[in-house]
């Protein structure tokens, strides 16, 4: 295992991201909902640059007590949307929202002494 320097903590604010390269890997490091994530920049669908996609809040349907449809609302969960075909992934786990069998490859990420590191 190898620890890679990513950036100073102050350089990666909420909702920001940075791509780093190591060997043949490209890894996106992003801060979302106050937590850091490190994700391989390869979508499990067809290899798109998933870490360059939008981060959006998950949408859920509101169902009333009588099982009637009451519209939709945004949740606190964030999704990462692949820019090629729109597959969405839960940033918290890397799991695909539409197919739980598919997942992003994630790496341990650490923040200490004002700096961010990824372990590969
Ligand atoms: S390559 Fe990511 S959705 Fe198709």
UniProtKB/TrEMBL annotation:
Coiled coil: none annotated. Its cofactor is [2Fe-2S] cluster. Belongs to the bacterial ring-hydroxylating dioxygenase ferredoxin component family. This is Nitrite reductase/ring-hydroxylating ferredoxin subunit. The lineage of its organism: Bacteria, Pseudomonadati, Pseudomonadota, Alphaproteobacteria, Hyphomicrobiales. InterPro entries: Rieske_2Fe-2S, Rieske_2Fe-2S_sf. Keywords: 2Fe-2S, Iron, Iron-sulfur, Metal-binding. Residues 4-118 form the Rieske domain. It comes from Ancylobacter polymorphus.
């Amino acid at each position: 295992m190898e620890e890679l320097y990513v950036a100073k903590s102050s350089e990666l604010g909420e909702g920001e991201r940075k791509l780093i390269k190591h060997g043949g890997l490209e890894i996106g490091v992003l801060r979302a909902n106050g937590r850091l994530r490190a994700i391989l920049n390869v979508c499990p669908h067809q290899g798109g640059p998933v870490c360059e996609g939008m981060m959006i809040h998950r949408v859920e349907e509101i169902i009333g007590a009588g099982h009637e449809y009451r519209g939709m609302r945004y949740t606190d969960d964030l999704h990462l949307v692949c820019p090629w075909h729109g597959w969405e992934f839960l940033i918290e786990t890397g799991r695909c929202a539409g197919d739980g069998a598919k997942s992003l490859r994630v790496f341990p990420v650490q923040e200490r002494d004002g700096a961010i590191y990824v372990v590969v």
